[in-house]
Specification:
3 helices, 78% helix, globular, 76 residues, mainly alpha
Length: 76
Amino acid sequence: MVFEGAFEAVTQEYKRASHDFQPFHSAHEGLAVIEEEFEELKSEVFKSPSARNWSQMQEEAVQVAAMALRFLVDCC
């Protein structure tokens, strides 16, 4: 995935999440959501390379980035 594709995927996920869910109510809530997405990414990364679901790993990375962006917008 090149930069433009990655940026577009993060932007789309940010827009979807912002439409489907209310803004973070606090920095603690935002951090908890980022941590949850990070743990999901970590579980894919920690699998052996032959067992990894590469599309799932990509999806989780996009979600981490989108929630970090949302944290910046909602909490900062």
